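ARCHIVE CARD
CATEGORY: sequence design from structure
SOURCE FIELD: tokenized fold
FIELD CONTENT:
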């Protein structure tokens, strides 16, 4: 086992915590609004991301007037290596309610139907979703049944933030420059 694999094993895994936090922030875009971003509430998540990036030591993190969040983790190697670019969008679909999201972690899934408590007619069943059977033994996160979850693309946002946090905590892991961009309004074009 190499030293990087060992570091990952020792890492206090927080991506789920970040994801749960982010999905509870209403960031729905609005296809009928001509402003950019289409909703100001998308900037609420942007401000949180800038604050978290700065707390990690990325003092260059900023959000522009349109809600785009930019940051850069400088290279920590003298080798010439390519720049890596991580990008995800912060907005969620306007097709389903996005306010008051109540994420639920279904721990150690064992193949049973998942009934969403706020609308018991919403049932995730392996009969209708056979891919659930590939998740036996894993945790599954859903909404409560009356809202979207926002995994598209707050899962990506959480993963990027967690990866950057890990690299900041472990400077012995060498990397080139990493550029980060979080965008508004992907759901509405």
């Amino acid at each position: 086992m190499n030293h990087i694999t060992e570091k990952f094993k020792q890492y206090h895994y927080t991506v789920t915590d970040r994801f749960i936090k982010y999905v509870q922030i209403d960031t729905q875009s609005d296809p009928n609004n001509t402003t950019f971003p289409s909703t100001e509430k998308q900037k609420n998540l942007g401000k949180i991301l800038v604050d978290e990036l700065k707390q990690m030591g990325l003092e260059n993190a900023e959000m522009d007037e349109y809600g785009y969040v930019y940051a850069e983790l400088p290279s920590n190697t003298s080798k010439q290596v390519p720049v890596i670019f991580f990008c995800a969008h912060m907005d969620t679909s306007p097709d389903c309610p996005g306010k008051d999201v109540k994420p639920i972690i279904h721990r150690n899934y064992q193949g049973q139907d998942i009934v969403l408590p706020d609308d018991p007619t919403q049932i995730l069943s392996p009969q209708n979703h056979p891919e659930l059977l590939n998740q036996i033994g894993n945790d599954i996160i859903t909404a409560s049944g009356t809202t979207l979850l926002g995994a598209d693309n707050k899962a990506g946002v959480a993963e990027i933030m967690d990866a950057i946090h890990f690299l900041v905590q472990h400077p012995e892991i060498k990397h080139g420059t990493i550029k980060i961009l979080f965008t508004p309004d992907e759901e509405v074009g």
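CARD ANNOTATION: The first helix runs from residue 3 to 10. The radius of gyration is 18 Å.
SHELF: design records, drawer C
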